[in-house]
Amino acid sequence: MSLSASNPAHFNDPFEVRPCFDQIRHDHFAKTHESFYAQFGLRNSLLGKRSMVGVPTENAVGFGDHLNKQFRDELGERFRVCCLSRTAQSALMWGHYTKSYQGFVLGIDISSGDFSPGIKPDGFEIRYTADRSEIKLPLAYYNETSVEEYDVSGKIVNDPNQQVESDGGIFIPFHEYQRQMEAARIAALTTKAIDWAYEQEVRLI
């Protein structure tokens, strides 16, 4: 008598919860990484003979993968997601989710006082889009050394007004960086490719 909520790091769509890693983020990470290691005499630490800054992202296969994995792992440590549908009439849904039409559908009343819907009472409607570049993390996320500062108990101790670099070379307060990160997390958990629109999905997070 239990209902499973999934670890978002294990979603089966290979493109889901993967934020856009564009040239700006590529160059920012490369610049801060190389600058950090240059302090120890390791110039051009990523390529050895030249800087990674300016190398076209499409030519740097896998360069941002570990950063995307880091983001997914962070989501997996914090969130669980119960994936539901608004329809019981989709033939594709029956084929994909009911052991090839052999299963059954359960209707769930999430307004029941005994049911915990998560952080939003009526769940999150999934937004389906053809543009996979819409979800972007704040630039400071890609600093070689984390912009977050922690005490010995793991609590973030940054001054809320500490300035951190953002897109376009501007600086924003740390509290705004945190707000943007939280918005990006929720957007990543509630956005899917247009191909999945038939699911009419609602997520309890």
DSSP helical segment count: 4
**Mean pLDDT across all residues, rounded?**
92
Radius of gyration: 20 Å
Q: Can you write the helix and strand succession as a string?
A: HHEHEEEEHEE
Strand order of the largest sheet: 1-7-2
Helix percent band: 25-40%
SS-based class: alpha+beta
Quick one: biggest sheet?
Answer: 3 strands, antiparallel
- Tell me the number of structural domains: 1
Low-confidence stretches: none
Q: Span from first to last CA? A: 19 Å
The share of residues in extended strands comes to 5-15%
In short:
The chain is an alpha+beta fold. It has helices at residues 23-38, 65-78, 91-97, 174-189; strands at 82-85, 124-125, 127-129, 163-165, 171-173, 191-193, 201-204. It has one domain (8-21, 64-204).
Give a written overview of the molecule.
The protein is of the alpha+beta class. The chain has one domain. Helices cover 26% and strands 11% of the residues. The protein has a three-stranded antiparallel β-sheet with strand order 1-7-2, with no helix packed on it. The radius of gyration is 20 Å and the shape is globular. The model has no long low-confidence stretch (mean pLDDT 92).
Outline the fold blueprint.
Blueprint: H1 23-38, H2 65-78, E1 82-85, H3 91-97, E2 124-125, E3 127-129, E4 163-165, E5 171-173, H4 174-189, E6 191-193, E7 201-204
Parallel strand pairs: 3-6
Antiparallel strand pairs: 1-7, 2-7, 4-5
Keywords:
single chain; 205 residues; alpha+beta; two-stranded parallel ribbon; globular
